Amino acid sequence: MARARSRDALVDRLIPAWNRGLHAYTPGEQPKVRGLIKLNTNENPYPPSPKVLRAVKAATDGRLRLYPNPTADGLRSKLARWHGCGVENLIVGNGSDELLAMAVRCFVRPGLRGGEQATSGTGTRRKPKVPSGEIVQYFWPSYSLYPVLADIHGARRNAVALPPDFSLPAVSDLRRGRQWDFRAALTLVTTPNAPSGRGYALGDLEALCEAQQGVVILDEAYVDFADGHALSLALRHPHVLVARTFSKAYSLCFQRVGYLVGHPALIGALHRIRDSYNVNGLGQVAAEATLADLVYYRRNFTRVRTTRDLLAKGLEAHGFRVLPSQTNFLLVEPTDRPAREWFERLRDRKILVRWFSASDVSRFLRISIGTENEMRTLLRAVAGIRGGKGRD
Ligand SMILES: *Cc1c(COP(=O)(O)O)cnc(C)c1O
Fold first, then answer.
1. Ligand 1 mean position to 387 CA, how many Å?
2. Over the stretch 229-279, which tens digit does the pLDDT of each residue have?
3. SS3 for 387?
4. What is the pTM of this model?
5. Which residue's CA is minimally distant from atom 6 of ligand 1?
6. What is the dihedral of CA 160, 162, 167, 171, to 10 degrees?
7. Which residues are 189's β-sheet partners?
8. What's the rounded Cα separation, in Å, for the pair 122 and 113?
9. Separation of alpha carbons 214 and 212, rounded Å
10. Are the C-beta atoms of 329 and 41 separated by less than 8 Å?
11. Ligand 1 atom closest to 190 (CA)
């Protein structure tokens, strides 16, 4: 016993203090419950196109022993054609999460690594004023990975609260508020926003980008479900990058493929810190086949958007406040009982939605858009819970 304890103490000393203060990212649950309707992680309810599945199966043979293309050249040239840019404007990653992490490592100085411990949560930066080169900045609430990435790197976080309606603050308001840092080394903007679902106008995003002196990443993970996109900003402004992913809209979460679009100098800087074979081969195959069958996916986007509007109406009829959404999920506020209780009651009925305990969003549920059938089942469950029927 004593020896085991001293060995544990020994091994603890191998772990630096900055690491012990970290909190890992909390992903949505992936439970293995039969018949569960899973609406908690914004996965697409529709499978990849049959052509994509065939391509992945056809590539699954003895060639798995070979390394994949290190820079995903085939995929990048197809993306370049699609987006009307050059391959030098593109870097592909193991999901866009990897690219966000690389951008933090690439563009931000790790000022807290000198021994000072990173703090947990989403807290804002502390006085006295710290150098902007050490700052990862983002609006809050947004993607909960951002603070985690900042902490891992030993960067300073500057989380600036969005207004209650989750709209994008005007540059003049940000100047007046004084908390926003126009010189932050890296600014991350989720657009459309998650978890609110709110879309941001191109002109407003451009005004914000133009006011920033550091790198800006527009994280467009949900943009295919929106009315517009901001890719042009990444090709017009050298300090702006747009992040896209095949996960949500293209039903490929499992394969982990995302990419950044931007100026060749920034893209080149990221390539210099990239792992040698960062995008797995089957992911490259799947993504390339996806681009050859966009018609299939556009049909799905329309279906998801139509279902989203139907669900919004249905939930409003049950007394929920539904926020406008440009994504494949809805942020809704129940008015009759706490969101947490709704989350639990729905889970009892094998419907899993997302509830965040963080105080600024704990009044809400985030519900991914499923198939029409799943949404009908959800609305029936909502009616049952409201009527106090069945298990309740
Ligand atoms: C899902 C998501 C991502 C990550 O996508 P991957 O490509 O699967 O890593 C990035 N940003 C936001 C806002 C997301 O919701």
1. 37
2. 999 999 999 999 999 999 999 999 999 999 999 999 999 999 999 999 999
3. helix
4. 0.93
5. 95
6. -30
7. 218
8. 18
9. 6
10. no
11. 13
Centroid of chain to Cα 384: 33
Ligand 1 pocket member 191 (CB < 6 A): no
Best of 26, 42, 97, 366 for a ligand 1 pocket test (most atoms within 8 Å of beta carbon): 97
Strand locations in the chain (E): 37-38, 90-93, 135-140, 156-161, 186-190, 215-219, 240-245, 258-261, 321-322, 329-333, 351-352, 365-368
Q: Which two tokens stand for residue 242?
A: 């747009």
Give distance in angstroms: CA of 191 to centre of ligand 1.
11
Q: In sequence order, which residues have a C-beta less than 8 Å from that of residue 229 and are 6 or more positions away?
A: 220, 223, 242
Ligand 1 neighbour 327 (Cβ under 6 A): no
Backbone angles phi, psi at 37, to 5 degrees: -95, 115
Ligand 1 and 48: CB distance under 6 A: no
**Which residues are registered as beta bridge partners of 160?**
139
Q: Is the per-residue pLDDT at 1 higher than 80?
A: no
Residue 280 near residue 255 (C-beta atoms within 8 A): yes
Q: Are 349 and 377 in contact (CB under 8 A)?
A: no
Q: What are the backbone angles phi and psi of residue 91, rounded to the nearest 5°?
A: -135, 135
Specify whether the CB–CB gap between 153 and 105 falls below 8 A.
Answer: yes
